[in-house]
Amino acid sequence: MRLKGPNARLVSLLYLAVTVSLLAQVGLGVKQEDFKTSEQVAFYRRHRAFADGVAKESRLLGKSASTQQVASPYSVLQDSVYLDGHTLVSSIQHGADKVPLKLSVSFLDKGIVRIRGQEAHPLLPRFDDTQKLVLRDGGANLKYASADSLQLTSETVNGETVHIVSFKDANHTASLRMTERPWTVEYVLNDKPSILLNSKGLFHFEHLREKPGADGEVDGADGAWEETFRSWTDTKPRGPESFGLDISFSGYEHVYGIPEHASSLSLKSTRGGGKEAYSQPYRLYNLDVFEHDLDSPMALYGSIPFMVAHNAESTVGVFWLNAAETWVDITREKSSTLGNLFRLGTSSKEPTVSTHWISESGVMDIFLLPGPSAADMYRQYADLVEQTPLPREFALGYHQCRWNYLDQEDVLTVDDKLQEHAIPYDVIWLDIEHTDGKRYFTWDSGKFPDPVAMQQKLAYNGHQLVTVVDPHIKRDTGYRIWKEANDKGYFVKNKEGNDNFQGWCWPGDSNWVDYLNPEAASWISRQFHLDKYNGSTPNLFVWNDMNEPSVFNGPEISMDKDIKHHGGWEHRDLHNIFGMLYHKATTDGLRTRESPNKRPFVLSRAYFAGSQRYGAVWTGDNAANWEHLRASIPMVLSNNVAGMHFAGADVGGFFGNPTPELMTRWYQLGIWYPFFRAHAHIDTKRREPWVFGEPYLSHIRSAIRERYRLLPYWYTLFREASLTGMPLVRPVWMEFPQETGMFSEDSSFMVGSAIMVIPATDADTSMPIDVRLPTQENWYDIRSHAAYIGPLKRQFATDLATTLVFARGGSIIPTRERHRGSSELMRRDPITLYVYVSQTGTATGRLYLDDGETYNYQNGAFIERELSFENAKLTSRPSVRTASSPAQLEFLKAMSKVRVERIVIVGMRNPLTKAVVVENGQTRTIELSYAGHKLDSECTIRDPAVLVGNDWEVTLS
Ligand code: NOJ
């Protein structure tokens, strides 16, 4: 239905009224009927029916054979297998339909294996731009294994041919085994079949086909050429083109990742698995889910099809590179079938997690990442999709947001009040109401008569502004953005491809720019430039919301799948990257608005693998209750597990009004989210930190100050992530890979490798908290410095002032201890180093500093120190990446007054009396005093006066 003119306006006003009143009624819970279950999705149903058929036949086969067998109809065509450089090529075919599929298995650097498959002679091209838009350099510069490190042999085992490609590199002795009948692939790592494809026989590829004629010939396949959901019809002009495959992790009980779901960290079974299991598969389909459920595999705002499996020996990953709707079923079993399947004579009773992935369209493109450590696996993943770049430093500070700060005066009052209450913050945010009638890039001039003056006032104390710029463009001929995009033909088109796709969102009737069109994407990027975006200054940054995309009157509150994008592609092919393409365009715009370029900051709600390159994400619309507070931990962790590091949840909970206790606890947790923002729905009461009065204000203030104190540690962590791909916040297992009892731990977590956080998440704030400190190591309460020896399992008493945070023995943590109003104002502040001594009397750490805003660090303008403590001597040396360059010298000069003002050694057993400091060949001695010390085992070297950029050592005796 398309309405035009005044009718359309009326309807959209009505619709908005309904939406707003719905939004106002907090506590209704998700409207399940708005979203599909797997049973309501035809391609899922077809794969399920296929899988059930295979399972049944496999059971029959099993009865007649001595070993268990799998009844997959797909086999490798005889003589089709050959090694072409770094790629094993083969053709496989379904026994009945005989349509050949071309399969390539490529061997990449670091043991990564890539498997791609589609029709050998496709009737129509399949959407294959996902790789260009997601992979590093568009996939053009992937590093392949050298052809001579690969060896192909073929064996006959029990009358069946097995092709084996063996390879060796520094970390792996591995082989990939491919059986012909049925087609299966086994990735054998250190002699163990670890990642198995099609071992359950669920591989099923719906080849493109001619539409059955009107002469009565019926295709028979369920929902293959048309499908309806409520009042929407998906016309499916290309017919069925989905594919599915089972991927089993043999020897593993836990899998993680595939955000975004409000689920546990260790993913649950979705088939079998008793009471704990979900009755639906995990779904990956970016959706705006109003008041979403908790403990659910339902799709949410972002999708990253990257799964990680971990056991005490190794960590491996699977990246399923596909941007269409995808479902993942998970089952667990003790399996003895795997070795037998290949009739290789081995039969192990390994625990196995089997997963079944089904995507609606596109090309089958899968990466197997062999680890073996988590650090190895993240380097492999980063090779594919890049790391998180170093963000603008202010973005690590505290973000103060609400829907909405009413006007300019309100903004400046909040700014003043935060300063008055001595609460540091970096950014104040403006939601949709700041615009002229939800026309983004404009201002409501009544409320914001002088946005530039407002930003200048904020900037005076180092504060920034973020404005929301949503992707829906109000249909209004008088609105420059709409008119230009319309004139240039930049909007996404309707199903027929002959007019703009039209839908409803905040402004009423809207169109959406088609970011798949590179010209349209660079046009929208330019709109963020200072000369285009009126009222913006270099202190303004951007928030992309509703970019799943959210379409109020569309199927599942999104776009119809059969509408058309650039190149004639259907929305279904790229739905899950649509939000990321907008995030990218926005980031590009902010990055290039100044010369030389500066680091941008953009927050996005929708995301995909690769989004980490463009900025931060948050978990969307949560609620002000304790359950949501708890759920945010596995949600933020799962994002980090999947490489989306810069993530957070709305502190305080978006819907509803938090109690002062909840608010306090949420700040105490939120300071440990990589992205730390308080936000609130328009209908909630004001809740800036001072609103709650004492003692809450003091607790909130000290939490926020704790974040600022640790900014040097956070920034150094981001630096590490930007080089290695390692998560910022980590599940406990990632730091303690053999701590099997903590593999599903998701109420405590690590920040980097040095800090363990055990948040208080109970409404009864005096409730004792279960603490588990792994491994045989010292742990120190980060505030009192009281020492505990791990492994330890006990309850700790709490009150509202207390949060349980422990520093791991053996780490050195850099801080800045002076209170300032913003991160910018702290930039030249001296550093304090905390040395938390391990059981063997040692500690190591790192400190990274740069100018926090430009790209000069890429030319060497940074200070990166390796800190180590051994034999009572603390040493600061330059990192291997430090090299003399004009840019570095200039930065060192700028930092020439920044010194280490204090060193606190925690956990020394012997009393110490003096410190001998050597810097630049100069020696001085400092007498140590214990006055004011909390513990005998703690000693402070006050003002060693060494410069952060210099080599120095401090010896204690
Ligand atoms: C939905 C977002 O999730 C929320 O954070 C925002 O406040 C509203 N849209 C209004 O823009």
N-to-C terminal Cα separation, in Å? 82 Å
User: Structural class of the secondary structure composition?
Assistant: alpha+beta
User: In this structure, how is the largest beta sheet organized?
Assistant: 10 strands, antiparallel
Ranges where pLDDT stays below 50 over 5 or more residues in a row are: 1-12, 14-26, 337-347
Radius of gyration: 29 Å
Annotated CATH topology of the domain at 39-230 and 241-385: Immunoglobulin-like
**Regarding CATH, which class of the domain at 39-230 and 241-385?**
Mainly Beta
Strand content: 25-35%
Unique bound compounds: 1-deoxynojirimycin
Proportion of helical residues: 10-25%
The CATH homologous superfamily of the domain at 39-230 and 241-385 is called: glycosyl hydrolase (family 31)
Total number of helical segments? Answer: 17
State mean pLDDT (0 to 100 scale). Answer: 93
- Tell me the CATH architecture of the domain at 39-230 and 241-385: Sandwich
Shape, per Cα inertia axes = globular
By DSSP, the count of extended strands is: 50
Describe the structure.
Keywords: Endoplasmic reticulum, Glycoprotein, Glycosidase, Hydrolase, Signal. Residues 388-717 form the Glycoside hydrolase family 31 TIM barrel domain. Residues 103-329 form the Glycoside hydrolase family 31 N-terminal domain. By secondary structure, the chain is an alpha+beta fold. The chain has a domain at 39-230 and 241-385: glycosyl hydrolase (family 31) (Immunoglobulin-like, Sandwich). 21% of the residues lie in helices and 27% in strands. The chain is built from 17 helices and 50 strands. The strands form eight sheets. Strands 6, 7, 8, 9, 10, 11, 14, 16, 19 and 20 form a ten-stranded antiparallel β-sheet that branches. The chain has a ten-stranded mixed β-sheet with strand order 48-47-50-45-44-43-41-42-46-49. Strands 1, 2, 3, 4, 5, 15, 17, 18 and 21 form a nine-stranded antiparallel β-sheet that branches. Helix 9 packs parallel to helix 10 (571-591) and helix 12 runs parallel beside helix 13. The longest helix has 23 residues, at 42-64. The termini are far apart. Residues 1-12, 14-26 and 337-347 have low confidence and may be disordered. The structure holds 1-deoxynojirimycin.
